[in-house]
């Protein structure tokens, strides 16, 4: 520890601290622009110059290491003169038109110029003008003359996003931030650069000039978009969500959110919102009052139960539904005598359902990822499925963590990987078995039953070694592993590694409330998400699910829905395809318009409130289900608040859910036999098509992550099946077919075709990882 | 042009032959004998460094930091790669000595670097050559090939087990890369933007490894110091200012060029060696150490000797030893206008005071030169330069501020005249008369 | 994109640096690319970046930072004149003016026949030889008084 005195305040700080660190510890504010705690030190803005005893010149607090006994003065004449000098320089070429700047009111330069800036400019020369740039639908770089060259955006790309898309070109006063000759910024984390920009140079394209910061009310919320549960600030004006920003929580999302989380809010204000209950009568949709709609639903459901029994009824919910919604939906189903409820529409293999020891979870806290010595991620489009977990692993890999990836495509994760294996989906289990075997061989213990015949290669050995060495290691199962036909085998194999090495086994988690759904009674006691469609039912309740896009096999699901006599469709959006097969549409409030609770993948319980009034006649899902329960004359629906429901489900005051365990019992390893039979589909869920909100955010739909799916095939496989790069191909699965453009992509394993799910152009296809045929169109 | 004159010359002696730069000629002059002696005799690293310390060889690049002391900062026992880097990015206006060393005596640089690498336990080195000099870069590469073939660099040098790989890196036009950390960034294939220090290169240098950077002339002096002994080298100069030094004399003298003289030689002697003032005009001012050094009026410099301490006492810096001589036909406003443009142009753009301040200073000086000066401009300039100096990441901010400060301090009358009369104090028709243009040199 | 000869030069430069530091060769490779193509078009910069495994914008940063790279087409002969103070004292300004007069173009301009581009340069480290020009970044010309300038222009076919 080192002793330091700042403005007379004494503190002990750890070795290696900077003066800025120490100042923050003692609560002294030192003005700064380029410094950011999550980025490398640039020391280029010079705003944080302070006086250090015995130093002849003022020194930048951000870059000056504390030495024992150091005395620092942040408000001395020398320090203030230096700070004022820098402020003057920053302002000479900066437009002094704050009233018309989008950043006005929330600009660090504006704020600090009040404290350190001169009343009148001494600069009478011509101001430097920087030409505007166009970098895509999310970030506006229309006013680059405002840039103060702090390079936070550049460093963010290099260090956090993992991809350098912005750079500072030229030199001297002609330095300017730009992309490479007119390119767009495509990182899935790019919006964070808007937050990092201390001035009005990088602004939010969808938000700019729609509101002034002081008109906005800041409300806390939690992201419904992925399993991290990023903490959000939702900014609101006149009951409209105007902007979504990260709310700092070091344990969860640090200070970042993905672009999907930042810009999906656009869907909330869209015309596609469902704002009135609707009932189909004689083939015509009619807007009706809530009591009419709920009567209709209650009668319809009761009729089906009476005539066909409870088993003729099934419910499927999205993983972004709240604990309260899922719990009440489960209660309604139970009350009607049906155990056919599920929240895992993309899952294929449910054989672990009766064998799990507890609720599957990450196996650790998110914040512990940085402490891992080794990590193996199995079956994941990591960057796109879990942008913030990928970010954590990226940072960890830069330090000492050996991060390996075993997955189905060779997409660049922008992580300095220790090792990677890319195999066909059907080969995942065999490849993971090889790691298990290699681990056993390294440890010199018996090879576990079932993996004796696995073929160990150099890479599986390398991965195995990284899971043996060090103190803390983990095997994470991603979405592809969860959705795989061999999900239970992959799970069991991961547990074998855990047993042999002491590594933690964890699930990255598919949705915002996957854990919450597990503990809220939304797991089937009857038919699961596959069975309920495989054996068609008479009536379905869909909550927040868009079957065309959200299911493992949309064909199967749509066939079942089309034959049902009643489909109750609960959604925030008037989902056009549902108008064909649904009979009732009930507008439920999205996360900004309801209170509720999500449990993230580390088991953290996060409750949020609605931040705006529900749009039109939309109602919070839990209220709707409560009323439905009452209309159905079911017992136990007397809840007066969502908190009451939460407390009943999760216990009052709990911070984390209990009963977390990834153990399995009674699962024997038995590697699937692979029959090399035609082509296999690999379906990713593109990040900006991943949920109903993202799908309806115009800005996200213009990003590189939202280009229409193509049929991506390795050059080798293309040659084998006689397909040309950029040629049109007919892609068929079962009865569904579509015409796509074929693209050569050697990141796709041989014998596979990558065709994304969750898009209108592929919604008629079948299993995400099923067999597929491709022919010239 | 090579050497136009010397007193007790060391570095540039015996370079009159056509092939003075070749390995054969260098060896004939006694070249590589010191490297061989050190390796054969297994001289300790401490002894090598101590010899350099004794010589009081001060860094010839401009800062004048004692070389032996710098070498002793290197963590010699640090495992892994360690680097020695030679700074031949000679772009300080007025300086052209390293180019001649590279042209006529490149093996002295190679031998000096090899000895330095041995002394500091470094295994790799780069010589960063100024972008604008191509011939010398190619010649140095040839010299490297020769030295490699002869076993003076590479693996297991002269059978000693000592390894040192040396390469040349060519710049491409950026003054700032003469700053040692900008130079390292440049070798790493990035923009030449200086790093904040600490950490210093000795602990975190090229590719994050321990690195020592010296100027070309410094390295080239090393074999000679080991040959004659540190003490004798020191005695060539004066206490605390050891040895001889190359001075690049440019501007209004009859014979501009490089002169090797002992530190401590009177300026008047140097001026005489250069054949005196061109056209017999009156000396007005001298910038004694490259354009970043404060300008000195004639009467002050005439009383100085050419060494670090004397010039410093006279209010300037010996810097790189680039002596820019100006006669009475020079308009000091126009001269400063050009220098201010240079610093503004060459600012790397990284840190605020330099990026913004150098442009501001240039615009004001340029305005004054063009008859648009305002009475408050000189105070403004002094205030702006005060906000640059000492506030920047590297020394370019200071380097840009010193000329403005010293020109106004010593020649303020010319600036005031310009502001008041919208024209030069030095009549237009005599301005730049000393340039010698249209005259073909003999 | 590049000739075999240029690619060979690239390889030679890359070999100077540790295996994991290929980016170090960016300056030299950009220079060789410019030498072959006459100037650095974005495609050339990107090709160099891809060759070295660095982001294109990082290569662009380099190409736009060092002033001997030409990001726009230049004439067959690019003549850079040093006008910095030490050269100016010995005729740098005058030599530049003489050259401008002879070619009929100013600094930063190219003659209509595409033969000459004139540039004003900073210190080339040859102040004792003033006035000094550099032709096509490579050939340094010393003592450029009128006769020498005339001769140079004649030699530039």
Automatic annotation (TrEMBL), chain B:
This is NADH-quinone oxidoreductase subunit F. It comes from the Bacteria. NDH-1 shuttles electrons from NADH, via FMN and iron-sulfur (Fe-S) centers, to quinones in the respiratory chain. The keyword Membrane does not apply. It holds the Pfam family NADH_4Fe-4S. Belongs to the complex I 51 kDa subunit family. Its cofactor is [4Fe-4S] cluster; FMN. GO terms for molecular function: 4 iron, 4 sulfur cluster binding; FMN binding; metal ion binding; NAD binding; NADH dehydrogenase (ubiquinone) activity; NADH dehydrogenase activity; quinone binding. The keyword Metal-binding applies. Keywords: 4Fe-4S, Flavoprotein, FMN, Iron, Iron-sulfur, Metal-binding, NAD, Oxidoreductase, Quinone, Translocase. Residues 333-378 form the NADH-ubiquinone oxidoreductase 51kDa subunit iron-sulphur binding domain. It comes from Dechloromonas aromatica (strain RCB). InterPro entries: ComplexI_51kDa_subunit (IPR050837), NADH-UbQ_OxRdtase_51kDa_CS (IPR001949), NADH-UbQ_OxRdtase_suF (IPR011537), Nuo51_FMN-bd (IPR011538), Nuo51_FMN-bd_sf (IPR037225), Nuop51_4Fe4S-bd (IPR019575), Nuop51_4Fe4S-bd_sf (IPR037207), Soluble_ligand-bd (IPR019554). Its EC number is 7.1.1.-. It catalyses: a quinone + NADH + 5 H(+)(in) = a quinol + NAD(+) + 4 H(+)(out). GO terms for biological process: cellular respiration. The lineage of its organism: Bacteria, Pseudomonadati, Pseudomonadota, Betaproteobacteria, Rhodocyclales.
TrEMBL record, chain C:
Its cofactor is [2Fe-2S] cluster. It is an enzyme of class 1 (oxidoreductase). Gene3D superfamilies: Glutaredoxin, NADH-quinone oxidoreductase subunit E. Its EC number is 1.6.5.3. Binds 1 [2Fe-2S] cluster. It catalyses: a quinone + NADH + 5 H(+)(in) = a quinol + NAD(+) + 4 H(+)(out). Keywords: 2Fe-2S, Iron, Iron-sulfur, Metal-binding, Oxidoreductase. PROSITE patterns: COMPLEX1_24K. The keyword Iron applies. One of its GO terms (molecular function) is NADH dehydrogenase activity. InterPro entries: NuoE-like, NuoE_dom, NuoE_N, Thioredoxin-like_sf. [2Fe-2S] cluster binds at residues 82, 87, 123, 127. It holds the Pfam family 2Fe-2S_thioredx. Belongs to the complex I 24 kDa subunit family. NCBIfam families: nuoE_fam, PRK07539.1-3. This is NADH dehydrogenase subunit E. It comes from Dechloromonas aromatica (strain RCB).
